Amino acid sequence: MIITTDITKNYGASCVVDGVTLSIPAGGVTSIIGPNGAGKSTLLSMVSRLMSMDKGTVTVDGLDVSKTGSEVLAKRLSILRQDNHMTARLTVRDLVSFGRFPYSRGRLTREDEGHIDRAIGYLNLVELSDRFLDELSGGQRQRAFVAMVLCQDTDYVLLDEPLNNLDMKHAMGMMKLLRKAANELGKTVVLVLHDINFASWYSDFIIAMKHGKVAAQGPADQMIRPEVLSTIYEMDIKVHEIGGQRISVYYE
After folding, report:
1. What is the pTM of this model?
2. Residue 36 above 80 pLDDT?
3. CA–CA dist 196, 32 (Å, integer)
4. Which of 34, 57, 81, 244 is the S-S candidate for 209 at Cβ 3.0 to 4.6 Å?
5. Under a CB-based contact definition with an 8 Å cutoff, are residues 57 and 64 in contact?
6. Strand pairing partners for 2?
């Protein structure tokens, strides 16, 4: 379980994350939603220690992320950031192999190669494994970065807006893969999402942020409700049910 206690981040006079305390359950898919500027990405960055906290603590299965050694934390928690730009010309396999660095320190073993092969296969990248990243479509590159994160073989997988720049078809494919990773590999997947419909369909637990605070949190079926969403987004949102699954429809 990931537990944050009163974590805060300020940029000058602006408080981006304001005393957030929450528990992210182990297992399944947790989505963090909310309007732009709500503090979602900053929260995820502090949880993963990519960004320092001005105040508060974060623990992952009891490990304090600010005090735990990088070599230990990197085997428990992995993160995919929004800005995944590589200056080096790498193949898909080269990129995915970076996920083994916490274990191999650059000297890949047979076990590492097995993890790389499985991650490439899991993300349906076998036929692309020797292609360079700059030769791929945006959706294919995004799958390669997710394969790298899965190759790290951590219990917790954090993804900051993994659907960025993906069309509807590729976004749905990505969410299916993440749902599959949670179900079949036993991963705890935590992601920042802007699309409420995807959050509704694929999440077990949803955290909604607004103005740097947690506005609401709970199981998906309790969160995808008009009275909850309309308050968070400050607009009239109606929720329809199709096949027993709640999906959101927006109205100004």
Report:
1. 0.92
2. yes
3. 10
4. 34
5. yes
6. 24, 60
